[in-house]
User: What shape does this take?
Amino acid sequence: MTNPVFWLVPAASIVALLLAWFFFRQMMGESEGTPTMQRIASHVRKGAMSYLKQQYKIVGIAFICLVALFSIMAYGFQLQNPWVPVAFLTGGFFSGLSGFLGMKTATYASARTANAARSSLNRGLRVAFRSGAVMGLVVVGLGLLDISFWYLLLDRLVDLPGTAKLAMITTTMLTFGMGASTQALFARVGGGIYTKAADVGADLVGKVEAGIPEDDPRNPATIADNVGDNVGDVAGMGADLYESYCGSILATSALGAAAYLTTGDTAMQYKAVVAPMLIAAVGIFLSIIGIFSVRTKENATMKDLLGSLATGTNLSSILIVGATFLILWALGLENWALVSCSVVVGLLVGIVIGRSTEYYTSQSYKPTRKLAESGKTGPATVIISGVGLGMVSTAVPVLAVVVGIILSYWFASGFDFSNVALGLYGIGIAAVGMLSTLGITLATDAYGPIADNAGGNAEMSGLGEEVRRRTDALDSLGNTTAATGKGFAIGSAALTGLALLASYIEEIRIGLDRLGQSFITLGDRVVPVHEASFTDFMQFYEVNLMSPKVLSGMFIGAMMAFLFCGLTMNAVGRAAAHMVDEVRRQFREIKGILEGKAEPDYARCVQISTKGAQREMVFPSVLAIIAPIATGLVFGVPGVIGLLVGGLSAGFVLAIFMANAGGAWDNAKKFVEEGNFGGKGSDVHKATVVGDTVGDPFKDTSGPSLNILIKLMSMVAIVMAGLTVSWSLF
Assistant: This one.
């Protein structure tokens, strides 16, 4: 059953991919600058591709092991849908592909951005931003292409009566999200360890000990640092948001199918399933309009530059509000006006989180300036102030998500809190609303590392003071957009995680059905499994706050967030120690480096970061997969639900804290480097460099990885639901 309006979804994905290709060709048509600029860009490109090649080997081994496990469960024990192993592979492939294409673009764009900045600030901004747009459009294009492919394939092959068909299709499609989540976690953790090992090594020995500027060609770790920006902030973020984007759409479609499962109304069920896909498809076209509206003037201030990007994102957001009401009205969805309000709520929550992150992390505002001022009394007060700032900054995003959950549930349920099925659909579609303009919001995020690398290229190539001033302005803007992007990614993970948690119950229904259990007993009532409501399952499995199994799961989930952060922070510390030793060795043994008479061994530092990241990323990533399986085998369904709730609530707050504290430390250092409180080389500058070094793994490794942890644990629980319902210790 495929309505002609559905074809808008694959059409939008193809338009996004074609425009991404157009922007890529347009960027490649720009000059890469002087021979020195080209040589430096080539070093970064080779290092990034070398790292990804190694990472994909390890991820490939992990995927082969997991596919073997899923195949045994699906074909040997019939505990899973037979499509799961294949869907898992396609999700991982497209997630990896989106990160790879975005990173390839970024490594070609940085030198071209630096060269464009020699002409004007506006030209540099345009090259960097449209190169970032390649990443945004590739992620949404590949996401909707994958969703369209699986929907059309399963629509032809699944042969079930009435509303059961769409319920089976949507829950099967959800499983490819685990492939995307697994690949995203490896990319985020590995890339984060790589980039921060290089960054910390470059800062501690180069800036603090040797007193040379950031991105100075005399620093042996500077190429590895620039490579790290690409593998962590571009490839990692692309894979992360691909997974969020697909996860929110698929979870909402599954909730839409479940909401009408017992009504027999296949027409309305179909509308609820395709509504999130259509909103995402129209969001692509509106993101494109926003991308074309971004431009700035020469001698623009930081606020002017932020305003330029805000013009594009705000325009897309305003247009999607009107478009959502039109789409759901034309579709004829039941309660279309109030469901549209849920979409608007999601969009507003995303904007509030973005603005809050900007306020707490941009040097244009008081919190970061006060943090920079705390450097007058040394690095200890910078650390204390930054931790405090990060903790305070969690309040607005958490309250925004709380209000978003309540309002989206309330609107979609028709102001009836007892209407659980449609209320949960409202939360899911709010997550879709938040991510509907991902094409442009991800473009602003991917812009950051491109601008950062452009600044590094300009410094290493010895371009003029005016060019460096322009690239510094673009870089500072990039730090803020990157922090905003991380806040946005974490916020979307919270709503997507809730939608996935609700979808888990639908997988439990199908798991029971596959085991041949047609009824569940609730006291004196016997309820057919296919007619059981969300609350029926909660009662059947005794999921309540007084259940020791639920409470145990909640504690384990909360612990997982902190354990995961601790493992990744320590991993950065160990890898950075190796980098510090190597940079010191080169300064000591290669005569003439600091005088600029000898070239450092850049390749050796790239190799150290690559090996450190590959070695350290495996254990935290595997732990995230094992935790839901082990919890399910011990405590059953109540334990898994507790684990997901605990992981979501603790992980969300911790991720916001870490991302904002790290972003504020980084921009406090930038604020001092602009000439405030003594400028570069002063004691205040050295104190803020220490703060920035501590903040590096906060904002680029542990914090951003947490949102994937939240979603991956949900996805693993969904995929392993058949095993959980068939056997548990308690």
Observations:
- The beta strands are 519-522, 525-528.
- The mean pLDDT is 91.
- The longest strand covers residues 519-522.
- The radius of gyration is 25 Å.
